[in-house]
Protein: Unique cartilage matrix-associated protein
Organism: Vicugna pacos
Amino acid sequence: MAWRQLVLTSCLSAAVLLSTENRQRLWADELRREHHEEQRNESENFAEEQNDEQEERSREAIKQWRQWHYDGLYPSYLYNCHHI
């Protein structure tokens, strides 16, 4: 009878230990997942800001080029520019 109790308690303690290890592993996986998600979001935000800045520089350069090369025969580019 005593050996049955010993086996039962050892099985229960092993189950608790495995349960604790699984919870720690799940917690570590969740932290890792959150960290990677934050890194990905930061990278995406940086890339989006870089693209926006590049588009703005291109738009300004095109606008300046059109103003410089305006020949006066047609209404100016700024006159035809539709502001949203």
Q: What stands out?
A: Residues 38-84 form one domain. Residues 2-68 form the longest helix (67 residues). DSSP finds two helices and no strands in the chain. The mean pLDDT is 81.
